[in-house]
Amino acid sequence: MAKTTKTKMHKTMNPISENIRGSMVELLQTHLATAVDITYQTKQAHWNVKGMNFIAVHELFDDLHEETEEYVDTIAERLTAIGGQAHGTVQAASENSLLDPYPLDLVKSEDHLKRLTESYAKWSAAIEKGIEEASEAGDPLTEDLLTAVGRGLDKGIYFMESHFQA
């Protein structure tokens, strides 16, 4: 479970109230940590996958890694645009990610696909809640950002699940 750390707020001319900005920064910190975590879970799978469909899965994981790396940057930039201080280090991600640790002993492509799908699905569910929170707070830009991330996660789930669905 993620632990929250109070984030320093910078002065900004952003029109969102300081109270809403503060709650959105905390929300985005959690999703930034999770984005960093899933980015390197995906890269871990990319580096270590083996099997008959190696090249296809290896390339899929690399593509997914690139997409999640973009989420890291987009979330961090939104967080700082509304006056927050991004906590984007690996250590901060480790402390604040919503995801379970990724097993370091996986090798078979199907095992990586299933485990990564679980991580993507867990984050996707949290993104849905974040979308609701941003909407209720009255921050349509954060809501839109999280919607785009959720759409990408769902596509990643589809690409991975298609390998083992009948």
Folded structure, characterized:
This protein is mainly α. The protein has a single domain, classed as Up-down Bundle (Ferritin), CATH 1.20.1260. Helices cover 70% and strands 0% of the residues. The protein contains 5 helices and no strands. The chain is elongated.
Q: Please, what is the average pLDDT?
A: 93
Class from helix and strand fractions: mainly alpha
Any idea of the CATH class?
Answer: Mainly Alpha
Number of helices: 5
CATH topology: Ferritin
Topology as a string of helices (H) and strands (E):
HHHHH
Amount of beta strand: under 5%
Give the low-pLDDT segments.
none
Backbone CA Rg? 16 Å
Q: What is the CATH superfamily?
A: Ferritin, core subunit, four-helix bundle
Multimeric state: single chain
Helicity level, as a percent range? Answer: over 70%
Question: What is the global morphology?
Answer: elongated
β-strand number:
0
Largest sheet: none
Return the CATH architecture. Answer: Up-down Bundle
What's the number of domains? 1
Rounded to the nearest angstrom, the distance between the terminal CA atoms is 33 Å
Write the layout of secondary structure elements.
Layout: H1 18-48, H2 54-81, H3 90-96, H4 109-137, H5 140-161
